[in-house]
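[Meeting: bench + compute handoff]

Bench side (C.D.) handed over the final construct sequence. Compute side (W.E.) agreed to return the predicted structure before the next meeting so the bench team could plan truncations. Sequence as handed over:
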Amino acid sequence: MIDVSIIIVNYNGFDLLKNCLITLYKFSKNFDFEVLVVDNNSTDGNIEELVREFDKVILIKNKTNLGFAKANNIALNIAQGKYILFLNNDVYLIDNSIKMVLDFAQTQSDDTFIGCKLLNTDHTWQASIANFPSGLNSFSANFFLYLLFPNSKYLNKYHLQRKEIREPIIIDYVLGAFLFGSRETFLKLKGFDTKSFFYAEDIDLCYRLKLLGGKTIYYPLTSVIHIGGASVKTNQWFKFKNKAISELQFFQKHKKGIEFFFGIFSHYCGNLIRIPISAIIGLIKFDKGLIIRSYYHFRLLFIYPKNLFIISFALIFV
């Protein structure tokens, strides 16, 4: 029996993937593992040549870019490990973290996901835990109320970032850069929701685990380095668009009634008010990036249902 199947999705990130694999094989000791690399039709190098440098790598080559969720699910369905680790290609290890998380996971009897501490490249702490999106914290985020109430678990879904957590705790969700759990649990949930192309798949998966009666645990006793956003640095519109779409999909799937409307409408208004704010500050500071951000917020308005336009203009003239 293989202890852990490590699944890594790659898309035009050959340098990141190589560094990830080097550190993975260097630090992963005293347990049996397999590595499944799923390549989403990369064009910046020879994936076969790269993975030949490492033992135990199973390469899956997709003919098109299927997105993060579908690519991970393909590997999940052929993985042989008792446990699964979904690992981003922009993560690299500095300790035998997988073994430490594996040992901890074996003490848990319920359906459980585990995420370890993520660090930036300068070894500072990286935000990786948060509360699930809700109508209230969406309203707070889009109207900047979280700045006034940073420690509120209701108004700031990232309130845990302000606490120094030294022991494992149950939380709502962890970032999918390092997401560990039993293969049985992941298959029970049928993996990631493939309607989401990129972003928020981890939030949805942890939410469905909670509905199932399971839990997600933040395990801060070991750390990995996560570069973060490396795959979208050259395409910021892709990031803006897919992040917004994934947030809307979460509300459409999991929220109903007034909370659904509250979440969607506040998200729309948040983009609406950020258009002039980003543009004005960008012009004052001669910051091209902020002006481009203003344009992106304008483009995002057109991904919402048409009735939101009617409602927003009605509110303006009332």
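W.E. noted at the follow-up: Residues 14 and 175 are 22 Å apart (CA to CA). C.D. will use this when planning the next construct.
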